[in-house]
Specification:
Strand content of chain B: over 45%
Structural class of chain B: mainly beta
Radius of gyration of chain A: 13 Å
Shape of chain A: globular
Largest sheet of chain A: 6 strands, mixed
Oligomer: heterodimer
Number of strands of chain B: 11
Helix content of chain B: under 10%
Number of helices of chain B: 0
Distance between the termini of chain A: 38 Å
Number of helices of chain A: 0
Order of helices and strands of chain B: EEEEEEEEEEE
Distance between the termini of chain B: 34 Å
Structural class of chain A: mainly beta
Strand content of chain A: over 45%
Amino acid sequence: DQQVKQNSPSLSVQEGRISILNCDYTNSMFDYFLWYKKYPAEGPTFLISISSIKDKNEDGRFTVFLNKSAKHLSLHIVPSQPGDSAVYFCASGGSNYKLTFGKGTLLTVNP
Amino acid sequence: DTGVSQDPRHKITKRGQNVTFRCDPISEHNRLYWYRQTLGQGPEFLTYFQNEAQLEKSRLLSDRFSAERPKGSFSTLEIQRTEQGDSAMYLCASSPAPRGQPQHFGDGTRLSIL
């Protein structure tokens, strides 16, 4: 069973607009969540994280929102830039240190 | 650059051969992780070390797979008697000790089995 789900395989937005990437999880034992960005032929690069005791974390153009009751988190990128075009992975962690990843969403930002 | 380093970047081998990959973590990180990623999937956890101790192994890690981290520094992942299904990207990550700290990934070793 897939404990972390990214239901949108791809998303296309215009430069300067907001990108919203979504992620759902099923395991209530997850208590921290991360977003990674991946370019082709490179490893995932950490973007931003959030602990389950918070509902929002912001870092520059990136904001992550957590809705624990819905087991849902989202990544907002404002404004979107062409260099943001990449695959974005949602990951969740619990007491055992390992991360469980979603399948990723390919974001394309059009100039 | 003091990021996570993996070697080789690419490995092509024939079915049945043994392969070994190396990972050098960020020097001050005492936790080291191995993941495997196949096409269209996110990284899947294989195993992790705290210093030299291997603390958890996934059921994905069959008895043909072995990982070591001697002296708590670099790590090696060996696959014996490779099979077609072993073709994947093998990713290494490291993190500081406190739980919840982000894991930082290397660029991976892409394994292709002929």
